[in-house]
């Protein structure tokens, strides 16, 4: 999840086993008559405590300014904390640049990751199909996901692209300098190019934490041309990635649960909870409310965790009943924002278990001056 060389806030690298991953995305803002462009950058930093990381920028970095002071998004009982930073950069032209968040001390994990590197390739050249700069894929993720060792689970990552591109995922590659050796993928997970992580039930020997280091990329659905400010052009086919963002988080395999059926020990979502991948539309300054209900007969619903826009407000109206309220500001006009929520429960008979059920949605903020239109391919 901005050097030229700029240190935003340095996190001490002497703190052991504290990193839970990161996420970075970007959204083009304005293109000016003199050829300069501005871009919004969003970072989510995941640590044991509410820290934020240092980010470096190389290439066409321009001048940075803060849009939102570093703020806590979500915290789980001192286990982990997700913090968010939103900045913009004013660039002299629309050539590419790269962001990197690097350091050491992944949380202790069974696939041996210690040092981390998370890289974003920011591509802002003008697209021939939209006549706009490129936007990165939009997604979000929690610092940690947990599954019982005996339960088959498929984790469908939110993979949305504002330009309508095809979004693909893969594990980070050390030889492409997207991670630091050893960056072995978790042996307990398989990852499809369509961004689904699959966990297969196995023996108790696989219990423990794993570091997940992934890359998400956007591919045009037809051949396009990217045009730079100096009028130079480059072609992109359907096999060529346009931009790249990192997705890094921790994955824990817990002791076996007494049952893998949803609604027994694992929480089950009920009406009126939106379906996974649902899309919502709202104009500036109009509050959008999302109601969520979950139940489990043999465990206690303990709370709702949210990873999404910083100004989402959550509330509870009783065990298993929650709501999320989002009122987009003028600065978010025309943007899309992913949101992920998890209902968490504790097993009544065995409190050491902590199980989750997850949904991911897309919040789409429409411009006041336009009619609402469906977003591109999801």
Q: What does it look like?
A:
The protein is mainly β. The protein is 0% helix and 49% strand. The chain contains no helices and 25 strands. The chain has strands at residues 19-31, 37-47, 56-59, 63-76, 80-91, 97-103, 116-122, 126-127, 144-148, 153-156, 166-171, 189-191, 196-199, 208-219, 224-227, 233-236, 244-254, 268-270, 279-283, 288-295, 299-307, 312-316, 321-326, 336-347, 354-366. The radius of gyration is 20 Å and the shape is globular. Residues 1-15, 349-353 and 365-378 have low confidence and may be disordered.
Reconstruct the topology from this structure.
Blueprint: E1 19-31, E2 37-47, E3 56-59, E4 63-76, E5 80-91, E6 97-103, E7 116-122, E8 126-127, E9 144-148, E10 153-156, E11 166-171, E12 189-191, E13 196-199, E14 208-219, E15 224-227, E16 233-236, E17 244-254, E18 268-270, E19 279-283, E20 288-295, E21 299-307, E22 312-316, E23 321-326, E24 336-347, E25 354-366
Parallel strand pairs: 9-17, 19-25
Antiparallel strand pairs: 1-2, 2-5, 3-6, 4-5, 6-7, 8-15, 10-13, 11-14, 12-13, 14-17, 15-16, 18-20, 20-23, 21-24, 22-23, 24-25
């Amino acid at each position: 999840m901005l050097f030229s060389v700029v240190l935003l806030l340095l996190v001490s690298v002497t703190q052991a086993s504290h990193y839970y991953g990161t996420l970075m995305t970007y959204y083009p803002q304005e293109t000016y008559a003199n050829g300069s462009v501005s871009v919004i950058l969003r970072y989510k930093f995941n640590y044991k405590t509410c820290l934020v990381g240092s980010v470096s920028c190389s290439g066409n970095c321009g001048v940075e300014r803060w849009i939102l002071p570093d703020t806590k998004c979500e915290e789980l009982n001192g286990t982990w904390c997700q913090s968010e930073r939103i900045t913009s950069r004013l660039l002299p032209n629309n050539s590419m640049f790269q962001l990197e968040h690097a350091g050491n001390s992944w949380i202790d994990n069974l696939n041996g990751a210690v040092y981390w590197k998370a890289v974003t390739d920011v591509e802002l050249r003008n697209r021939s199909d939209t006549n706009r700069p490129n936007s990165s894929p939009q997604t979000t993720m929690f610092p940690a996901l947990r599954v019982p060792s005996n339960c088959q689970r498929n984790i469908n990552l939110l993979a949305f692209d504002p330009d309508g591109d095809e979004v693909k995922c893969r594990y980070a590659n050390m030889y492409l300098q997207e991670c630091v050796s050893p960056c072995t993928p978790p042996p307990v997970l398989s990852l499809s190019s369509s961004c689904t992580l699959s966990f297969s039930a196995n023996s108790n020997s696989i219990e423990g934490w794993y570091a997940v280091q992934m890359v998400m990329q956007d591919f045009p659905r037809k051949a396009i041309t990217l045009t730079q400010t100096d009028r130079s052009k480059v072609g992109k086919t359907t096999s060529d990635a346009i931009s790249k963002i990192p997705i890094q988080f921790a994955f824990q395999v817990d002791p076996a649960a007494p049952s893998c059926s949803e609604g027994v020990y694992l929480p089950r979502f009920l009406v009126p909870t939106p379906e996974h991948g649902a899309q919502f539309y709202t104009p500036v300054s109009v509050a959008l409310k999302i109601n969520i209900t979950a139940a489990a007969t043999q465990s206690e619903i303990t709370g709702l965790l949210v990873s999404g826009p910083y100004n989402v407000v959550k509330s509870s109206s009783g065990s298993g009943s929650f709501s999320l309220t989002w009122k987009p500001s003028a600065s978010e006009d025309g943007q899309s924002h992913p949101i992920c929520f998890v209902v968490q429960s504790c097993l009544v008979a065995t409190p050491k278990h902590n199980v989750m059920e997850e949904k991911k949605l897309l919040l789409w903020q429409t411009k006041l001056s336009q009619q609402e239109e469906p977003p591109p391919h999801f």
